[in-house]
Structure formats: C-alpha cells, structure tokens
Amino acid sequence: DVVAVESSAGMRDQLARTLPDVALLEGTAESIPLPDDSVDAVLVAQAWHWVDPVRALPEVARVLTPGGRLGLVWNIRDEREDWVAQLGRTMHRHGEEADVDPAPAVGRPFAPLQRHDVEWGYHLSRAALVDLVASRSYVITLPEPQRTALLADVRELVNAHPALAGAGEIVVPYVTWCYRTDLVAA
Length: 186
What we know:
two-stranded parallel ribbon, 4-stranded mixed sheet, alpha/beta
C-alpha cells in the first residue's frame, strides 16, 4: 500500500487525477498525518533539501515501524557531458536554485546513509528541453525579462552546441542519487 503526503494543493490535485487509487493526505515531512509506527518506509523524492531535518527526522522516525527505512532520491543532470555543464552554467547565471547536497545530514535515530547511483537518459525534443528548463520553479518565478533571457540562452545552446545542433532528439544524461537508511533502536 502507498500513502502519498503532499503539502501543495496543486500537486495533490495532479496526483489524484493521475493516480486516483493512491491514498493522498495533506502534510509535510515535519508534520506527517499518520499514526506512530504505521509505515515500513518513507520515501522523499526531489524534496529533502526543502525540509527542516531537525523537525523532519523525528517525525519520520515517529511514523516508521521499528527497523523501517528512509529513502531520499534526487535526479541530477550529469554535467560530465560538456553541453549539460554549459546548460547548468547558463541556468546558474540566471539564478538556478542551489545545488543539492550530495551527502544529506540524517544521523540518529537512523543508521549511516548508504548511496547508490543510477545513470539514465531522458529522451526529449529540442523544444521539450526548453520547456523542461521553463518548468523549473525558480524559472517560473523569475521576472519576465530574466526568464525570457534565460530561455533565449538555452535555445542558443541547443542550436549552437556541436553535440546538439541539428539533433532531432536530445538525450539529457542524469544520475539519480538514491540514499537509504534504517531506523535503529534508540
């Protein structure tokens, strides 16, 4: 069984439309609306950097069954590819949010974190790559002149970089950082 906990009404609405059979509750990592010792695992994807770990860790421990598992996941653009590194520099120049910490702090009452990386590629069109950048929350909230300049810079990169120029499909390389830790006895 899966229970989704989400603070954003818009995200809850989208999830309910997409997966109507999944139990869905309003809440945050700092205030999980579940009983004590009620779940075997808590998974936080693309969001741990938004939570207050001082408040979230005891809350996660509260809802986990003894020996339960916490999983943390991030999808990171693989900037070992030159054009992806240039894309990252372009996005940072226009105000991209800070990088994700490659070693999130967890600590007691959890065991040391274990990490496993998964490399994969996201296949999309040239226009979809620009749309992907445009969909980032910090891009959406940029003042219109900055947003327009950023997207123009991304289009220029897509049209001019030798690895992308003329490509019908682009493969954005990613690395997914998968962390896990188990709740240990106090």
